Amino acid sequence: MRITINRREALLASLAAAGALPCARAFAQELLPPANAAASIRLLFYNTHLLPTIAQKVAGHRGQDDYRTAAIAAKLYRYDLIGLCEVFESRRRKEIVEVVQRDSRNTFHVIEQPKPWGRHLIGSGLMLLSRYPIVGEPHFITYHHASRVVTNGWKADGFAAKGAIHAQLQVREQPAAQLDCFLTHLESISPKARGEQIKELADFIAKHAHPERPAILIGDLNVAADAPGVPAADDSEYRQLTSKLAFGEQYFVDLWPAFHDTAGGTNDALAKEHCRRIDYAFISPPQPTGLTLEPTAIRVEPFLDAKVEQGSLSDHAALECNFVLR
Fold this sequence. Notes:
Layout: H1 7-17, H2 25-31, E1 40-50, H3 56-59, H4 65-74, E2 81-87, H5 90-104, E3 109-112, E4 127-130, E5 134-142, H6 149-152, E6 163-172, E7 177-185, H7 191-208, E8 215-220, H8 237-244, E9 246-247, E10 250-251, E11 253-254, H9 256-259, E12 279-283, E13 293-301, E14 318-325
Parallel strand pairs: 1-2, 7-8
Antiparallel strand pairs: 1-14, 2-4, 3-4, 5-6, 6-7, 8-12, 9-10, 11-12, 13-14
């Protein structure tokens, strides 16, 4: 059965049941025990724009990669769960890991996508860093569909092995509780290829998510969110995305409109509200039993930096999310 989400109404109803909204606090307090302030998760998703040298002439040269890598890495230790994309070069990933482990006293577990295969010249650029132990082995997918040089020119995404990572995280020891985390970066050039990747992503999530575990999906999806408060057209790519992120009785909801009625643009760190929202944090609604992951805040963080010529550490802004565990 596929559930078509009526954007804001269904999202607000789902999250209000978890006490995510101020207007639902009194109701939530009757159902849920007081949150343990220590049982919290601070999450960051960030498209770093740390492109490989081979791609910078055609995909955008930002420069100052040594400085930007170090500056980005220096901000990460304060989070509990971190999803990064466009960290394409292994030396940049190594530099980030070294700084994060140094600043956190080696408290992070790190997952990187395997080396590219076949026609791909570079890897996915995905990195997942977690303070929580990883249960079992992480899972990976490389999307079969992508834009190619013959159809989309030299900016085609098919050079990179874009895909997704799944990790099951042990977020609480007693009583034991796990969380499913999915990280992805979707096609940026071809809407047709991106649509096929969304189907692949949905199948990947359905395969590895479990109805008794809460789940988070973060990533640069390259789908522009519909304007807040405006009914979505039937052919809206955002509407098609949210309908695909439904499998059986489970589905994901977009966190941003549960807390804000603004655009929440992310694809231009300097443009504030005058840009597209293409970076996302989705969460599965709370289950009747087991661990509840209650969102308490989400915000756009541009990571401005006067030492970078363009004014910010990446072309994108980052997303920060806060949760409490119940």
